């Protein structure tokens, strides 16, 4: 008897971490399996650990090798961690893309802002719509989140129905869009749900996420009471927050000035798609200085401490058009993403030291999460009643807590996996059956590098312990043609005894060469390696760190 088709789930990003989302669903047998991709996002580099790396993307080797069987890419929503890698990676896949109107429009605007982007067509699907993509029937189920038109995906196959929640929350009073579609989710539960692959971001937090309506009231109160100029920073994609700020500014008789390209791009798309209907046009940064301090509000990018974003430049008094002074107010209407605490803290401390009032969600209702807390997760489980739950979109602690909660809710089977695991969903017992290639790609300037690329590894070492560079020229007889040249980068000028390090290294290089047997002095490779080892060892002895050492030997 022929073996039944197997339904598989393969995460290549977004599990065991927050960001860089890419999930695959496979249906079929062996190499004849059809694949459906869900989201293709980025995470952002940490300058301390990845110097020079701005963006991190999932390694797509596995699905690239299967691209003839890749029937499509479906977007749950238009956050960077869900769609930010498409421009760079789609040329390697060249599959159809499906998204709803706002996501498609924001992606088009993102492409337009790039220099020479590839031509990437997107098929627009109505919210609540269904479409056949290969052997998969995909339904877009509306959910609330911190960006318009977020959707859970109901993925129907011959082997069963899977609900991929994407990012979601329950907000009974949203500023934009409808509440999460409880009625449809309950109907899907009645239909029978094989597996629920669900957002775990807030699985460690009890209760329920607050409503955007509460944030709007909090912002209105603060902005109306503020003296002097007001600046609000938030995620550029949070159109609900943009609308709340605009309405609060209108009540306080202030003009809203947009500061930052990302903010301008999202605002334009939100107007085109109707999400800012009734909101007065925003002003450009060039008009900021034309308004009295108590009549202006700057809506800025830079809530995560990004050094090149608007708020950092304003805080450093480095913005060409926008300034803040003592007595002005800055509102951080956002949460700090883990890893960005130092950068955000530096900006806050810089603003406070200038006499600027800083307001955050630690003391005021100026931000709420776009992800479900534990009571909301319980609701989702009770509505869809899955046979299997797979925690996704979270670090190890979040996944573990979501799994424990699911078991306590009576979910029959719970499976925790990691990026690169191939999970059999059906038929038979759910299990991790294989490992596929996975990892990270680093965007280094204009170049995509593997996570183990020499340049990335070397730069990390250089950032930690600097570099020593030695150049020398040899005659055919194996003699020094001139004095060696030594250049130390990122290494202390003097040792603990006050001696010049470059002079010490020069002496080590000359002594090492002089002590080589005459036959080896004619071998440039042998000379270079001997001096490299000696110099590196000497620096470690004097400084206590193992530096990068490069020796160039020229034959003259």
UniProtKB/TrEMBL annotation:
Sequence intervals crossing the membrane: none
Superkingdom of origin organism: Bacteria
UniProt domain Metallo-beta-lactamase: residue ranges: 19-219
Alphabetized CDD domains for the sequence: RNaseJ_MBL-fold
Alphabetically ordered keywords of this record: Exonuclease, Hydrolase, Metal-binding, Nuclease, RNA-binding, Zinc
Keyword Lyase in annotation: no
Keyword Hydrolase belongs to the record: yes
Protein's recorded name: Ribonuclease J
